[in-house]
Amino acid sequence: MKNIDSAFRTLRVFTILIVLVSSGLCCLSLYWSFRSISRQQQTVYVIGNGQAFLASSSSRKENLSAEARDHVQRFHELFFTLDPDEASIRENTTRALYLADQSAKKVYDNLRERDFYSQLVAANVNQSLKVDSIEVDLSEYPYRFRFHGTQLITRPTTQTTRNLFCQGMLREVSRSENNSHGLLIERWEILDNRDLRTRNRK
Questions:
Q1: Distance CA 89, CA 121 (A)
Q2: Rounded to the nearest 5 degrees, what angle is found at the Cα of 64, between the Cα atoms of 63 and 69?
Q3: DSSP letter for each residue of 137-182
Q4: Can you tell me the mean pLDDT for 172-185?
Q5: What gap in Å lies between CA 95 and CA 100, rounded to an integer?
Q6: Could you read off the pLDDT of 99-142 as tens digits, one per residue?
């Protein structure tokens, strides 16, 4: 009887150990599986020009500085890069106005009322923009920015270089197809837009 009792006790301890070890292994397997799945979900492949590129997800704060600068640059490029084509002007300005509030719409309406765009098409003038610097202050919300660039205005006989200095605020909004950065330019104003030099074209 003592041998049976001792064997039963040993078997019970052995069974408990096996159950504990199995439970531990199951928990460890689940932990590593969830961790692996989580890592996989943070990595995606983007296909561009027939090639696959690795992309990783990150929080908004990690990329806010780069996204804010790109948003400001994109708006100014769309708003100030103009070709002597009504459809192109309308498309660019419409896309630009999705990135800003009424302050930009007011500038656009003033230019349109002065027949600026019609004169640009009639005179075969095109404008291009070179970005010199973009400063964004993320220490206080809404974020303040300053944009400095150079406009190149090409006419049939002359080419004018013009300074462009703007400032405004950035507010966070929902991302959309028309506003992929989820930022909106507010209180936008042009501080300086004077001619720097004009040269004759050969």
A1: 9
A2: 105
A3: E-SSSSEEEEEEEEEEEE-SSEEEEEEEEEEEEEEE----SS-TT-
A4: 91
A5: 10
A6: 999 999 999 999 999 999 999 999 999 999 999 999 999 999 99
User: What amino acid occupies position 155?
Assistant: R
CA 33 to chain centre: 33
Kindly report the backbone phi and psi dihedral angles of residue 9, in degrees, each rounded to the nearest multiple of 5, phi listed first: -65, -45
Task: Give me the residue label for tokens 């806010």.
Answer: 64
Residue with tokens 């930009």, as numbered in its chain:
104
Q: Which two tokens stand for residue 197?
A: 């030099």
Residue 115 backbone phi and psi in degrees, to 5: 60, 30
DSSP class of residue 14 equals H
Cα(91)–Cα(78) distance, rounded to whole angstroms? Answer: 9
Which residues face 144 on adjacent strands?
A: 137, 169
Indicate the pTM of the whole model. Answer: 0.71
Measure the CA–CA gap between 96 and 169, rounded to whole angstroms: 15
Tell me the pLDDT tens digit for each residue of 54-107: 665 555 677 889 999 999 999 999 999 999 999 999 999 999 999 999 999 999
User: Is 145:163 a contact under the CB 8 Å cutoff?
Assistant: no
Contact between 46 and 52 under an 8 Å Cβ cutoff? The reply is yes
What separation in angstroms does the CA of 110 have from each of 4, 72, 105, 106?
101, 21, 9, 6
Are the C-beta atoms of 166 and 133 separated by less than 8 Å? no
169 CB contacts (<8 Å, ≥6 apart)?
142, 143, 144, 145, 185, 186, 187
